[in-house]
């Protein structure tokens, strides 16, 4: 379990993370979502003790990363743009990591097989494709068989097969009871991978909920109604407990009921309708709406 307690991080006048608190629980994939520059990487770096919070603390299974006795056995991480010595073979890269963390040599073969690199383990990493480098990064994260795993934008630059592989892997790790946190700026990807979402913008918490709840609360799906009697229609819908707003073109938008129910209400009150249509909203739109202010601020404030 990861316990983020009121952490903040300033870089000069930039507030990268601003009083952030949330908990990442075991047995599920938690998506850590936010637009570019929201503070995801900074938060993950603070979880790993690579950056020190200006305030607050992060506890992993009750202790800070720095005070873990065998960190690689407690927490595995795949960071963005990781640098691997290009002249080394995959095997020697992992062996070096294993030996410096007192992890048995046999585990190197195990993780190479786990990520499907056993056939190329003697090749120089410098000649690896992005997908292979990513698999090697995952192998390193799994080396210490840790109960907690952090993945920072793991699907960036991967082809569809690689994306599916990472997704299945993360779900498998969570199913084994591990704590899995994965950052992304793509809502659509998280909807397929995560069970739980932590959404941040401008370094602040915007949402912390199950994926299903998030969809129900933020998807904004509604029914669009065009009628020559909008006032009366609005009264009928409101009386039936629905939330109604008027769109820019004068049509009504009703939230909280299916199109069929609205058709029935109109018919029961002898209201003429010219259109009753269900309007789905994608999760991506929900995410954009939620983080819109944060992004706008960034565009104005610049980096
Ligand atoms: N070392 C640093 N020095 C100065 N500013 C930094 C540093 N690291 C991050 N920042 C700033 O902190 C803010 C948050 O950056 P961070 O990389 O954590 O965001 P992110 O959500 O991971 O975004 P991205 O998806 O673009 O990586 C940004 O405004 C960034 O410019």
Structure commentary:
This is ATP-binding cassette domain-containing protein. The chain folds into two domains: 2-209, Rossmann fold, CATH 3.40.50; 221-279, Alpha-Beta Plaits, CATH 3.30.70. The chain is built from eleven helices and 13 strands. The chain has helices spanning 40-47, 71-74, 90-100, 106-114, 130-142, 160-175, 187-193, 211-218, 230-239, 259-268, 283-301; strands at residues 2-11, 14-24, 28-33, 55-60, 75-78, 148-152, 179-184, 196-201, 204-210, 222-226, 243-246, 252-255, 275-279. The strands form three sheets. The protein has a six-stranded mixed beta sheet, with helices on both faces. Strands 11-12-10-13 form a four-stranded antiparallel beta sheet, covered by helices on one side. Strands 2-1-4 form a three-stranded antiparallel beta sheet, with helices on one face. A hairpin with a 5-residue loop joins strand 11 (243-246) and strand 12. Helix 3 crosses helix 4 (106-114). Bound molecules: adenosine-5'-triphosphate. The site of adenosine-5'-triphosphate has 13 residues, from strand 2 and helix 1.
Give a nutshell description of this structure.
This protein has 303 residues and is of the alpha/beta class. It is built from eleven helices and 13 strands.
């Amino acid at each position: 379990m990861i316990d983020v307690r009121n952490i903040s991080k300033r870089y000069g006048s930039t507030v990268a993370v601003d009083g952030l608190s949330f908990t990442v629980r075991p047995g599920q994939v938690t998506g850590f979502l936010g637009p570019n520059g929201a503070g995801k990487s900074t938060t993950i770096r603070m979880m790993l003790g690579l950056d020190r919070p200006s305030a607050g603390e992060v506890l992993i299974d009750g202790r800070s990363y720095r005070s873990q006795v065998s960190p690689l056995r407690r927490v595995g991480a795949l960071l963005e743009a990781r640098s691997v010595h290009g002249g080394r073979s995959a095997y020697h890269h992992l062996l070096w990591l294993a030996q410096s963390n007192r992890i048995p040599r046999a585990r190197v073969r195990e993780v190479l097989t786990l990520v499907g690199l056993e056939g190329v383990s003697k090749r120089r990493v410098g000649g690896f494709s992005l997908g292979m480098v990513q698999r090697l990064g995952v192998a390193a994260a799994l080396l210490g068989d840790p109960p907690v795993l952090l993945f920072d934008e793991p699907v960036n630059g991967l082809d569809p097969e690689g994306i599916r592989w990472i997704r299945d892997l993360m779900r498998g790790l969570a199913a084994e009871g591990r704590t899995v946190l994965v950052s992304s700026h793509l809502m659509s990807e998280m909807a397929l991978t995560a069970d739980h979402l932590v959404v941040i913008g401008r370094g602040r918490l915007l949402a912390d909920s199950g994926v299903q709840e998030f969809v129900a609360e933020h998807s904004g799906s509604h029914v669009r109604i065009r009628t020559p009697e909008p006032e009366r229609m609005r009264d009928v819908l409101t009386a039936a407990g629905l939330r109604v707003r008027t769109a820019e073109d004068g049509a009504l938008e009703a939230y909280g009921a299916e199109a069929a129910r609205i058709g029935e209400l109109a018919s029961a009150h002898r209201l003429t309708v010219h259109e009753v249509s269900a309007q789905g909203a994608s999760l991506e739109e929900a995410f954009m709406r939620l983080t819109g202010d944060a992004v706008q601020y960034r565009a104005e404030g610049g980096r």
